[in-house]
Amino acid sequence: MAANRRSSSLLPFLLASALPLFHSVPVFADIPWIVESPDPTVMGGADCSLVLDDQEVPHIAYYDAASGDLRYAVKAGVVWAIEDVDTLGNVGAGVTLRLDGNGNPHMMYLDRTDQTTWEWQIKYATRSGSPWSVEIAYSPGHTITEPEFVLDSSGRPHFVCGDIPGPYNRYGYKLGGSWFVEHVADSVSYTRGVDYSLALDGMNRPHITYTESYSPSDLKLATKSDGAWSIETIATEGGRSVLVLDEAGSPRVAYYYYHLYYATQSGGAWSSELVDDLMYSGTKISLALDSQDRPHIAYADSWGYWFDYAYKVGDVWSIERSDDLESPGRNVSLVLDAMDNPHIGYSDGVSLAYAKTDIWAGVASVVQSRGAPSVWPSLTRGGPVWISMPDEFGQMLDVTVFDTAGREVKMLAESEGASPRGRGWNLTGMRGEYVAPGVYFLSVCTEKGSSVGKVILVR
Asked: Where in the sequence is the signal peptide annotated (predicted)?
């Protein structure tokens, strides 16, 4: 496609001649984050864990640091139903919430009631009907770290934690009516680490990320298969991490080492990329993969100054910093709904908060056309966009951006991020200046055809 198409009469020609015809994309409203306070009585900050049920109703388990109680909130219409889960002592720190196949809640958390000899316990609470059933999952007689907890395909609980001193990595699970806890150990020695994350694959085998608690502080992945643990290095320097397995069972890891990084594995080799180069970004992290295995990360800094949301499309990361979200004081919990919209539970340092943004609200119609370019996100508040075409159209030759008057804004260069079938746009014009808010058309030329997409920029 020629680079000199600048006349205002060009746009109707593009829309009429594109093969296939112009693709009608969603029209979005400028919707900010909607933030609620599920439990205004929480005054001491809160560890929290958020999940959505099959009806996309939010459920939050949270620890009230002021009262030392574990509570559970479920949104019922426009109000939140609040109940106590465990109030015996100082209970609930590091809580993780999961729902089983029947929608029943399961929680695992730390009991730190003993502040004299520091003999802490890991507790497990579940409910099928009423009341709550609470039991001790692990009580080693000394200090332990907060657990990370998941349910397997049969609804059985699995967890990872650390024994202190060490801390030595421990993996536990419930089978029948008994709990079993073992060291995470290779053929040489027990492993020691901090900042755990746990995921189970399709065969219910555990995968655990942790950072070694001694020099060097390598970020490691431990996997158990056929009764034996194998240990590999993800990165030579690491910190807090979150592990998620994609649809193929491959590990994806978001982690912090003075900045926020994202690591993937291909052919047995690990590679890491920088997500956010701001110092101390990523001290609190939550990672989720959407329906196309694209990563979404909610994270914050160690100073409590900002709360960011990053997502990747193609080779381009988009980072949104919203004034609607207060920086989380303790932790952040991210989940995506069926439309890949984010929902976040967090503490703003004082109280419990729940936030969501519905990027599909206000859509009048969506017309899908074979061969039309995929533009994601179709609405952006300042982050880059990624343009791609179906495989059958072959390699992408060029992409030119036009405004609604048909004036050429920019021909996208490969330096902005590209693959054979995709191209990124960083929302700048020919001179590198950021473009004004408005509607922009993306004229795509490939080896076997052409088409036009649309993106809306709001500020």
From this structure: 1-29
